[in-house]
Each structure stands twice: as structure tokens, then as C-alpha cells.
Amino acid sequence: MRQDRRKFLIGLGAAPLASAAAMRIAAAQNPPTLGPVPDFPNPLNFESGDLLWPKRKGAIVPRTRGWGTRQGTAPAPAEQEIHAWEAARQQMLANPAASGLSREVAERLRTMSYEDFTRIYFTATTEEAPSSAPPQRSRGIGAQQAISVGHVGVIELAPSGTAYVIEATPTYPDGTAAGVIRTLYGEWLKRYTNVQVWHGRLHTLSAAARRRVVEVAASQLGKPYDFFNFDLSDDRGFYCSKLVWFCAWRGAQFAPDDNPDPRRGSRFPPWFAPKTLLNSKHIELLHNPGEY
Predict the structure, then answer these.
(1) Is the peptide bond before 269 cis (omega within 30 degrees of 0)?
(2) Prediction pTM value
(3) What is the pLDDT of residue 141?
């Protein structure tokens, strides 16, 4: 029964507008009963410019698609994630100025371990925890299940009502390099396993402004993934939450974290985290399956 429901939800991602209207009528005639919150949001509630945060069950934050799993495959080992992070860090440290880093922040990144990084990024605060503090992980997560950073994507609705997700991700599920890509919502959802998905909206912005956010996101398709580019206004490369901040600023002159200064490399930590975005006062959570 659960599998049939999952296929039904996935299919909605590519359903035409007429079908969506019929479903709304059916939902009105058959109001849902109270019960557990579903793992996935109802695509009928999607609007262009809405945001999605996937999260593996039992974890603090999810793996990105590129560093995670495909359905039916084993999780990528923690060593693979650490190697990818270290390679990107070394490339950035070869020319810190190109990433917009101050000398002080570059030096702190030079001595940072992967565990330091996960602790700082997971907490989504502006203060660095003491170096002696243990990395934060959810209960039951072992050393071989270390989780990489969170993830967020932007919803785009076609005129037909078909839902797409625009996101910045390091690789496709087959391991090839990705960047800023567009995926049918149903296909995007199928590439995850054992996850929950949060659905939010920048309620401070009008629907027209949120559509402009999507237009900017679509204009960045094909740009490379760059996790160590800390200038949020630099459109040469993106990580997932930087793409959202950039599109909100470029499309609506709006900073989701109330900080209009895009140059984040002069203070620590220099990342704008997906969890920071989720916790913004400007986000209205429309589907919340639990603690993120």
C-alpha cells in the first residue's frame, strides 16, 4: 500500500494542470483524516519559487544527490565524502583571493578538519564552536554513516502544472559532474531513498517576486558546482543554498537571511547553509515531517 502511495505522489510531479484540478476537487470532497505527517509534500500545494529540503530519515541533514545514494544502491562511504570535500578545499586554498576569502578566514580553513566543518555547518550559526567540541550527529549515526551538508532546491512550475526542481549539486547520480540542473520533481524524488522532504515558501515575497526568483535560477542552468565560492553574488559557480540566496537577491532584491552583503569570505563560517535558510523568519513551512 505504501509503495502504491509513493508511486502516486511521484506521478503527480509530472501531472498536467487539468489532472491537478481534478485532484483538488477530489481532495475537497474527501477531506484527509488526522494521522502521521507524510514523508513528502503534496505537489498540489507547490508554487513557483517554493523550496524543498530533502533529509535522510534519522539524520541531521541529508547527503546531496551527488554524494548520496541512488535507489537500490549502497550508501557512499564516508571516506568518499571526505575526499571530495578535501579536494575542493585544497583547490580553493591554492588561490584564496579568487574565492573572496580574507587572509584570516583562509588560514582557518587551511587548518580545518572535515569534522570541524560538519560541526560548524550543521549548527548553522555564525559562531565557531570550540575545537574540543565533538562533531554533532544524530542519535544512531555511526562513523561510517557521517552525513555531508544539507541540501535545498527551487521549485519551478511549467504552464502545464508540471513541477521541476532547479538545484546546484556536485554530480549526477551516475557520478558525472553536474552543477545547476533542472529535474522533474517525480524523477528528483525517485533518486532519493529513505528520506523526508520539507516544503517551504518565502512568504515575505509576492507570488510575482517568487516567479522572478525562478527565472533567475533557470538562467543559471549549466553553471558549475562550486562549494568554496563564498561571494554570494558571484554567478560563476554555486552550491545549493548559495543558488537560492543569489536568485532571491538578483530576482527580488531580497536577502533571505537579512544580510544584503554577499561577500561572506571575510567572516567565519563563510557558508550560507541550507539549515540557516530553513530557519529563516521569512520561510513559511508548508510541509514539516519533523525536526530537520
Answers:
(1) yes
(2) 0.67
(3) 29
